[in-house]
DNA sequence: GAATCTTTATAAAGCACCTTTCATAACCTC
DNA sequence: GAGGTTATGAAAGGTGCTTTATAAAGATTC
């Protein structure tokens, strides 16, 4: 046993500095000491000491004294030093690797990406190293300063142990120990997570409650975020692509799930072709199908409605069980816009008790990277503020 | 703001007494002071002071000195005084009200139940009062000592505000303010929760991870428990009875959900009748259908398989999204045993990636009451151990 | 321009709690 | 009964927070 429970009055110091640090973080812009006293409920000498400690350790920075408009002696003002603990995020995909560096406030200092030209894990690792190097240089951060690394990658990932268990889209990927490779360069914890989960984290940022964040493109996945924390369950939460629509005949396995094969971006195009009609015959991709539907093309509207119905039927059981506050759709199909969303909403109203809010993600790019940075930051803060 | 952050070294005392109390709780049976020192990592004088305080406040009780087998001076031994903060649980159903009293260790001190003979909320409240009185008397606990009250009731409940929003099975129930009525008698917090949710808590006790606890009888509901805490979502989590099976024609609403109408206990009997055959023609209830299936009756086996398939198809999407570690089935249909369970397991293996453990609940009776007591206890402990 | 008020910063005194250390007590085994 | 083991109790020392008092810097007022 002997958990070595923190002893002595030092714990108090820890708790109080954490409270002060959290108060500075939550405020925006420089904060006066007196404000911190009010925000934390601590006494002035306590806050003074905590701030002193935080200035020494680099987490806070002092601003020039500025005469207050209220009269009185100018106040000392401090703010978060974002560069105290920068974090590195990586989005490792089959064709591209993206790296990003963010500061403590969540500001993205640099983002770089590189294509993966050849197959093989050796090349992939080299690309990862190169992209990382570039991002760090652009952000003017040395590897030794990085406080946390988070990696997003497709496939099934054991988030707790940091292992890639199964990644059909990147051959050989599951066998290399990515964490060890990066821990050799960085003196900090390294986390790995499924890319759909990280995208969900990115989408969930700033939201409370329960969220189902759907990534809908060629593939179809989702992440479940409950009160800002990723829900992993037994390890494979959010795999909506493998939901089997009614009447689906399991064909031979190509790695994709039944629902992906039925209403993935590719399948939507195929459905439109089969439906025929003047505009749909020439539709090259899902976007054109949705555009036609938006223009009122009856055949396209019918296809969209069938797709929406299949989606609604697939997620309705989960809506009833999970009772999410919102479902947010991102990915290529999200660009369909209101046409698809309204149709889904209509069907969900029919299939659930009180349907959740249904939205499209407004995150433009780098969703997975943003999620990785968010996870890294979240862990850094959790670590720093833990009592 | 000014959250009035706890000040001074008094916080330390709070933290340390909480640590000691938790250590005593987690140990089973009387604990020596020296053991507590090891368990908490605190120093002896600190533990001594904390124990003194806890003895004074009644949370701990001292045992007679008992010569140790190791030699040396006999140690002072303390243990949890379960009666320091007894909790009251209530299961308010349409036909019966059950009350129970438990001590801090979770031991049920008394359980009483009374039928509800007449309709109307006045009578119902009178029954609640009478049952409560009896349970308290049997447990030898005065109302003033009760530290927490938790109530389980069917319908849709706002667990945070303690309001019954919608309860079709108990007319007029949603309008009365149960919490206020009970708070007049008890000087403590009063919580209300949906009965299926409480049953889920009872089933989840001692389990980690994510759990889907299904109540399957005439009605069909479920509770989601994640790491020992009830998942409420937007307020209606676990409503699997309203999942719509493929091909289901929405008939006029009788308050029950589509899945309940399809594979509830009543529907199973009807299915068996329709299937015909020597044994099924006379089947009076679902239990006889399962008995026939267990005996190998082909028609009964077919019915069970269809029921299992419908259930598996209904929950499979949620399994993929939620990734529960286990699904536990309780309620009347749970008595079907292995016949049903094996069939469900077979279908789930086909419909999910890695199927969760599938089990029957071994909680015999008073599941809702047990859950209510568990929720009350959980809150009491959380309150007492909060730093 | 000096006095006064307001706001903030700094320092010292006092209190609470934990930790260390030493002495004492009770009991067992040999 | 001697020696070892385990537990108790009291005093001294350290750290951190709170209270109180004093000083500094600027705005306002007369």
Automatic annotation (TrEMBL), chains A, B:
The entry's keywords: Kinase, Transferase
tRNA-binding as UniProt keyword: no
UniProt-listed CDD domains: ASKHA_ATPase_ROK
Residue ranges annotated for the HTH iclR-type domain, each copy included: 17-63
GO molecular function: DNA binding; kinase activity
Organism: Actinophytocola algeriensis
GO biological process: regulation of DNA-templated transcription
Family, per entry: Belongs to the ROK (NagC/XylR) family.
One Pfam short name: ROK
Name listed for the protein in its UniProt record: Putative NBD/HSP70 family sugar kinase
Keyword presence, Metal-binding: no
